[in-house]
């Protein structure tokens, strides 16, 4: 039980009918009637209700915690204080509008309120939700009236609406600052996007310039070596002897057609695909495939005559080693991608020096696993497609990390089924074309 406040020793002793009305407090300043019918000082009983649901006088549970101003006791307190020369009590606003002191001791009158109870015509202080009428506190606790009804304090209703209105006013007052902050954020995001596009455009220009110039220079150097070799062979006496190096060089030059630039190569276009490295692709990326198409030659094909440069890989199962490599392609970064048939995997190597970069897949029949993989292709959206020969299917994997995306087909001879697929390609509309080896057909898959 909450401790009772100490008595006010400086106050004169109140009359008997005011002395012991609530707890052990001194003279009340705001007497109210609780649901147990007893009168208490408002501050004391509200403090009691913070931790109790029972009556401090009877100890019984309270039906509710509504407090009704005891105007009769309050008038007596006011009169008694005036008689004893004490300052008047500062009453709550709603009480001051109801109680108006007039003249001497005990002379008080109740002002006519603006709204009155529908039953007693007393000041309206409670809204009875059940009756849908405004009532006074007496009717609110009257068993014959609204004691068991659902009720709301009028003061609380007004205060709640006032607080809600104030909350919306605060929101309105804060919206200009919020709007300004959002506009600045959008401006910053737009500026960042523009800068990102500008930087990407600069990188693409450099890449395109590198591909165009480097490829043409490579072809010119290759033809220069071939011309030098042919001129040397034509001036050599060894050309008169079969199987000599000079004779072989001249024979190759005579029987192979020259590697001329294709029509329109001067104005040829490189293929650009969307970058997968950003969430929303911006400008794209130049592919090596465009370079090969423009110059009309396949990767790794060399002109006639001496010119062996290097070998990549060796027999074995370690990274960078192969067992029966079958198909190869270049990715968008110029790296070499090889189907390592006998090791049941795909290997990615750096083309410049043959260094192993990563391995995709391993032996098995699960997602991302292979059984003698053969043909490989890229779809331009960051995926690699692999003809999984021994598993009779085509697998689509995310090229960046080898994660399984989709499986196309299964074993059989029906539509969409395969028997030992050997190669795969992607057409211009994104459809997958598969060499269905054992079924003696090609299949186009959406």
Describe it for me?
The longest helix is centred in the middle third of the chain and has 81 residues, at 154-234. The protein has three domains: 1-111, Zinc/RING finger domain, C3HC4 (zinc finger) (Herpes Virus-1); 187-295, no CATH class; 325-445, TolB, C-terminal domain (Neuraminidase), CATH 2.120.10. It has a four-stranded antiparallel sheet with strand order 11-12-13-14, with no helix packed on it. The chain has eight helices and 21 strands. It has 446 residues and is of the alpha+beta class. Residues 1-12, 17-25, 93-113, 272-282 and 284-306 have low confidence and may be disordered.
Question: Topology of this structure?
Answer:
Elements: H1 16-19, E1 31-33, E2 39-41, H2 42-49, E3 68-69, H3 71-83, H4 93-96, E4 99-101, E5 108-110, E6 126-128, E7 133-135, H5 137-141, E8 151-153, H6 154-234, H7 245-255, E9 272-273, E10 285-286, H8 288-295, E11 325-330, E12 336-340, E13 345-349, E14 356-360, E15 373-378, E16 383-388, E17 393-398, E18 404-408, E19 421-426, E20 432-436, E21 441-445
Antiparallel strand pairs: 1-2, 1-3, 4-5, 6-7, 6-8, 9-10, 11-12, 12-13, 13-14, 15-16, 16-17, 17-18, 19-20, 20-21
Helix pairs in contact: 6-7
Using brief descriptors, characterize the structure shown.
four-stranded antiparallel sheet, 3 domains, elongated, single chain, 8 helices, Herpes Virus-1, 446 residues, alpha+beta
Q: How would you summarize this macromolecular structure in one to three sentences?
A:
This protein is α+β, with helices and mostly antiparallel strands. The protein has helices at 16-19, 42-49, 71-83, 93-96, 137-141, 154-234, 245-255, 288-295; strands at 31-33, 39-41, 68-69, 99-101, 108-110, 126-128, 133-135, 151-153, 272-273, 285-286, 325-330, 336-340, 345-349, 356-360, 373-378, 383-388, 393-398, 404-408, 421-426, 432-436, 441-445.
